[in-house]
Amino acid sequence: MPAVKLTKNELKRQKDALKRFRRYLPTLVLKKQQLQMVIRQLEARAAEETRKRRELTDGAAPWLELFAEPFPFQDWLRVRNVRTEAANIAGVEIPVFKSMDFAATGHDLFATPPWVDDALALFAALARLDVEIGLLRKQVELLAAELRVTSQRVNLFEKVKIPEASETIRRINIFIGDQQTAAVVTGKTAKRNLLRREEAS
Q1: What is residue 180's predicted lDDT score, i.e. its pLDDT?
Q2: What's the pLDDT at 77?
Q3: Which CATH number is correct for 8-71+115-196, 3.40.190, 1.10.287, 1.10.10, 3.30.70?
Q4: What pLDDT is stored for residue 108 in this prediction?
Q5: Which of 37, 55, 59, 155 keeps 20 to 30 A from 172, CA to CA?
Q6: Contact 11, 165 (CB under 8 A)
Q7: Per-residue b/e over 78-103, b at no fewer than 16 CB within 10 Å?
Q8: How many CB atoms lie within 10 A of CB 120?
Q9: What is the structure's pLDDT at 193?
């Protein structure tokens, strides 16, 4: 603990600081709890979207061998744009998935096997899920970084700043109390000496 002045001004400064720390701490604790709750929700959503993706690929497994046929799928399914929105969670701006558009495919329905349309729909659904899962992971990453900072601040206030200020206030109060006691004793001693001198004269 750094050396502090044992004065009434320092006592007031420390009391003000302690009051400020105690006022901010509940807000930080609330922010920490909110971040933890939202992170859990986002992780659950990411796990659910990952499960959906696995179900789609597992459901398509029986006819995936058809992809060995030479068709230029990469030209038939192109992402035109991905729309996201910014959301604010406990002071952290995160990207939120809104929609995903694909360019119109120009393949000939009569020249391609019937399963191609199902395959394109599957690829579109998988691409959409991949983008959503990626954004959910990004949200968790951003919120987890803020949670680390907030947890550090909570610990700083709880374990360092508040105990330090309380200890400094206690030390200053003891010092000032000792000074006041010494002043009273000195005053009584001076009064007693003065009375003795008056009696002696």
Answers
A1: 85
A2: 76
A3: 1.10.287
A4: 64
A5: 155
A6: no
A7: eeeebeeeeeebbebebbebeebebe
A8: 17
A9: 81
Structure tokens at 83: 């729309």
Q: From start to end of the chain, where are the E strands?
A: 79-89, 92-102
Domain boundaries, the chain: 8-71+115-196
- Amino acid 186 reads T
Q: How many residues does the chain have?
A: 201
Amino acid (1-letter code) at residue 57:
T
Residues of the chain whose pLDDT is less than 50? none
Backbone angles phi, psi at 102, to 5 degrees: -115, 150
pLDDT at 11: 87
In a 3-state reduction of DSSP, which class is residue 89? strand
| Token reading at 48 | 């659910």
pLDDT tens figures, 81-113: 999 999 999 889 999 999 998 886 666 666 666
How many other CB atoms are found less than 10 A from the CB of residue 146?
Answer: 18
Tokens of 167: 């200890």
The burial of 40, by beta-carbon neighbours within 10 Å (0-12 exposed, 13-18 middle, 19 or more buried), is given as exposed
At residue 164's C-alpha, the angle toward residues 159 and 170, to 5°, is 130
Could you give phi then psi for residue 185, rounded to 5 degrees?
Answer: -65, -45
